[in-house]
Specification:
single chain, 481 residues, Rossmann fold, Transcription Regulator spoIIAA, 4 domains, 6-stranded parallel sheet, 13 helices, binds S-adenosyl-L-homocysteine, binds iron/sulfur cluster, binds FE3-S4 cluster
Length: 481
């Protein structure tokens, strides 16, 4: 266990455990043996992992979980602030709580997460959304039992955005994860990079790494529980351990996880290209259980734009990383994030992004139109392009990438690949023989036929067809155990 004073340890959680008992008592007195909670997650995987911790605390307070607001005693909306669209969605969802509160005046409504960490948001909620009872930011996550107790016992609204930007490392809460084969495991919190467009360092505080021993133990317990596709989470996993006084860096952590007995895949996100090293790729290539797959956000293909974004690498450096990764893992799957219409980006500069796409040929992309975030350096930077021009560039980017994605998927037809069969059916039900969903090591979606009864198992499949978004394959029965 790290000796860092920032660790919110088991011992410090004792106080919160006491509050858990107090909340449980209040509901028992009200005749509710098993109050119900409804949680909604609107952000990234890290946000999802936070919701799992919140559900862990709710379970400690005696809550069960329901699938609709109508059945709930407590509703929790875990928010995201990354783009304006995400924030607008939150205000839309919060609006719906007014109706739910009228139906059930005892309902406790909670807003938390990255957006709630911002003081201007808390102010707006305080003034314009009186039916929101509790607001707390990412820094106050571990105080949730105390906040709920205060609200229930006083009947007053509670706001808690406290916590310094150094932040805390939370240990001692057992997350309540989704059932299935996939699990998230946070290895670090926060971000130090201050990319000029990004709100994350402001709402999540500075980078801090969990102790390797704690991570390894949690990983082992996930394997014991039957999880087989485990994703290590951090805003920049490649700088994992830089605050642990040299105890363990990210490639070493991967090696140690690879040594854990059991049948599983481990993957990670996100990698910042400035900190991705040849050693990382060597370790990925060597470690059998570490997926040959990487999400390596490039954001733009033009060096002036990259510098303005404060990304601290050039397009050439990025291409050389890609070339190295492919030299040691020829089949590595690569995905990336791109921002279109960053302030000051010209059409000529955007062409460099297109040409980078043609050179790298990513398997798929996450694409975003720049959204100004209050408090970030890019917020006030002037635009060169109009909204319409940005949209045109965005559409073109999608067109180019969709073609590349289809071509890359076509290359799989006729090949035999290892997949992990999911529990879900093929919901869309197209190509109706292919009833089961599965994922490859590169996280490609494969709809399978002949996979009944193989849920949760690794099997080999031969790919028979492809589309832009998915592959279609048949299980090789000779491989069946
Ligand atoms: N830490 C990760 C991801 C952070 S957010 C990383 O560095 O890659 C995920 C993606 O959202 C980013 O990679 C970026 O492409 C996008 N993004 C972040 N801020 C944005 C903004 N203000 N406008 C548009 N896209 C943004
Ligand atoms: Fe945001 Fe950059 Fe940090 Fe990613 S690395 S979270 S984009 S500041
Ligand atoms: Fe994630 Fe959104 Fe926060 S992307 S880190 S939930 S701002």
């Amino acid at each position: 266990m790290s000796s860092s004073s920032r660790v919110v340890s088991d011992e410090l959680m004792k106080l919160q455990r006491d509050y858990c008992d107090k909340v449980r008592n209040i509901y028992n007195i009200r005749g509710k043996e098993r109050p119900m909670a409804y949680t909604q997650t609107l952000g990234c995987q890290q946000n999802e992992a936070d919701t799992e911790l919140i559900r862990g605390m709710l379970a400690m307070m005696g809550f069960g979980f329901c699938d609709s607001i109508a059945e709930a005693d407590v509703v929790i909306i875990n928010t995201c602030a990354i783009r304006d669209h995400a924030e607008q969605r939150v205000y839309g969802n919060v609006g719906e709580l007014s109706h739910a509160k009228k139906e059930n005046p005892n309902l406790v409504t909670v807003l938390c997460g990255c957006m709630a960490q911002q003081s201007h948001v808390a102010k707006r909620v305080r003034e314009s959304y009186p039916y929101v009872d509790i607001v707390f930011g990412t820094h106050a996550l571990q105080r949730f039992p105390q906040l709920l107790f205060t609200c229930l016992s006083t009947g007053k609204r509670v706001f808690d955005l406290e916590g310094d930007e150094k932040g805390a490392i939370i240990e001692g809460i057992e997350p309540v994860r989704k059932k299935g084969r996939r699990a998230w495991l946070s290895i670090m919190y926060g971000c130090n990079n201050f990319c000029s467009y990004c709100v994350v360092p402001y709402v999540r505080g500075r980078e801090r790494s969990r102790a390797p021993e704690v991570i390894i133990e949690e990983f082992k317990s996930l394997v014991a529980q039957g999880y087989k596709d485990i994703t290590l989470l951090g805003q920049n996993v490649n700088s994992y351990g830089s605050d642990l006084e040299g105890a363990c860096d990210f490639p070493t952590l991967l090696e140690r996880i690879n040594d854990i007995p059991g049948e599983f895949w481990v993957r990670f996100m996100t990698s910042h290209p400035k900190d991705a090293t040849p050693r990382l790729f060597d370790v990925m290539a060597k470690c059998q259980k570490v997926c040959d797959s990487i999400h390596l956000p490039v954001q733009a293909g033009n060096d002036r734009v990259l510098a303005d974004m404060n990304r601290r690498y050039t397009a050439e450096k990025y291409l050389s990383l890609v070339a190295y990764a492919r030299s040691v893992m020829p089949d590595i799957t690569m995905t990336s994030d791109i921002i279109v219409g960053f302030p000051g980006e010209t059409n000529e500069e955007f062409e460099d992004t297109i040409s980078l796409l043609e050179k790298v040929r990513f398997d798929s992309l996450f694409t975003f139109i720049f959204s100004p975030r209050k408090g970030t350096r890019a917020y006030d930077m002037p635009d060169v392009l109009t909204k319409e021009e940005k949209q045109q560039n965005f559409d073109r980017l999608l067109e180019v990438q969709n073609r590349i994605s289809k071509e890359k998927n076509d290359e799989y037809v006729g090949r035999r690949v290892r997949v992990l069969v999911g529990e879900e059916e093929n919901e869309k039900n197209y190509n109706n023989d292919y009833t089961k969903q599965s994922r490859t090591e590169g996280f490609k979606l494969v709809y399978l036929r002949g996979a009944d009864g193989l849920e949760g198992q690794f099997v080999d499949a031969v790919i028979e067809k492809s589309s832009t978004w998915a592959l279609f394959g048949a299980v090789c029965r000779d491989e069946e155990k």
